[in-house]
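INFO worker-7 received task bundle
INFO bundle size: 2
INFO processing item 0
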Amino acid sequence: MLFSTEPKDSVKDLFDREKESAELRDKLKERMILVLGMRRIGKTSLVLSTLNSTDRNFVYVDVRKIYDEASRKVQAEKLYEELYFSLTKLSRKERVRDLLTKLNISLESPLKAKLPLDEIKGNIIKIFEQLNRIGKVVVAFDEAQYLRYSTVGLRSVLAHVYDHMKEVSLLFTGSEVGLLYDFVGVEDPESELYGRYFASVEIRPFEREKSREFLRAGFKEIGEKVEESVIERAVGEIDGVVGWLVYFGKLYPEKGVDALDEVKSLGSKMVKKELEGLFIRSPYYLDILKAIATMGRTRWKNVVNYVIVKNEKKVPNATISRDLKALMMTGFVEKIGEEYVIPDPIVKYTILQEY
């Protein structure tokens, strides 16, 4: 169902992503693949649906699930546990069971807790070694930029996997594209993963007409008749971000024309939580976002002037430049030509309404 809020796991349930799915399927032959796109754009659905459409075994780990916001860490035990239990979903899990049993790593629960870090790291490597023995397998880490907070030093493990386990392909998704690039080490010679080739697939928001088609198709699927003016207003206000379009379609049968306001209210709560975690890192993030949200498409000098006026003091250009770059790395800001924009309309709405 197009308006299902759970990630899709079949290509027949994807809408207008045939090109991206075919591209991803083709690139699965590479050793490392990055699937990039803003939040709520459908990366998880694309990955799961495409992998399910192949004969490849795959392991899926949702890194968001094990990232602790309070400590800003991905604890080694949580990562190991998530990777460990995902093995039970492999179609060849009996083969994996046999291999891991020989290494004294059981697939039965409960998982032994409080292992020393070195033992956890060693066991993670053993898991990859045994996956490598069963044939072609994809290990997918969703929202992988959080792995840079891993307490187990995962980059060195993944570099070892890349170099020595030729049957394993590593797949990373990321909505904070710059931070994912940092983790992979695209421009950092100090990163253990630096210099390894990777393929990438980018998912963009729908164009306006595709957004209209998506809503029409979804409403037809659930037997709901909706005026074109309602669809037009929804597309105009929440644009081509699939996650928000899905929420609108899901809420409309119950809320009617109030569904759009409900989406903005619900979305704003979600976004505000994300922003609050962001704002503690710099006192100027909010001012920069406010400048861009207020002016729509904003040039560098306008951002600088806004921040200076807002703070009633001279703020070094280097500081603003650093923070603006950080906001782009986290995906909240995008640069188009010489102008900065907030690509997610609900983020823009939240900045204007809540701050």
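INFO item 0 finished
INFO processing item 1
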Amino acid sequence: MGAVTFAATVKDIRLESRAGTEARWQIALDNTRFSASAKSGTLVAVARSGTRLEVPVLGIVEEQGTVWHIVGKPLTDGTEVIGILTEGRA
């Protein structure tokens, strides 16, 4: 079975935790294929300059109908991303 991909836009971001210089963030997308059975993968953003940023999804948290993607790098609200699932089924 091939990788599952989808296009989305970052709609919200919040700090999950900070320990020294390390931080973990939670990102909400306008749509997602990540779920309790498909909770790891990557969010890929491409800057206007063409620079590609790959942000691993470390897990998810579901809260009041919103899926929050746990990541180690923040993405700005409004950033367009491609989600790539690497575990489980969408």
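INFO item 1 finished
INFO post-check item 1: Residues 26 and 46 are 19 Å apart (CA to CA).
INFO post-check item 1: The two ends are 12 Å apart (CA to CA).
INFO worker-7 idle
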